[in-house]
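Researcher: Dear colleague, please comment on this protein.
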Amino acid sequence: MEHSELMIKRIYRQSAFAVGALAIISLFFTDWRFSLGIVIGGLAGEVNLRGIVWSVRSLLGTEKAQIKMMVLSMFRLFAIFFVLAALAVFKMINVYGLLVGFTVVFIIMIKEGIIVAKRRS
């Protein structure tokens, strides 16, 4: 298995653990919508990462790969936005919890990227 596959698996595992732990802990201090927002934000971050990985692996080396990846990325981001906006409008989630969950996944991606970059240099 190459470094990038291991890094992605570590990101998924660490994100699931961190987001789950934060959501459970926040249940004791906040409304359930905040905890649900953390979980949904973490899922949105992981879905976005999975979409990026899938786009790069399946389209790299094809004709006009950059344009196809850009279109798929825009479609994916709009789909995630509309789902999250609908959940927020119907007050199913707390927007701050959503931000926490998404940020946790983002920070873990940056941390793992730095670790892999240091190993390669």
Q: What stands out?
A: Residues 59 and 84 are 27 Å apart (CA to CA). The chain has a mean pLDDT of 89. The first helix runs from residue 3 to 27.
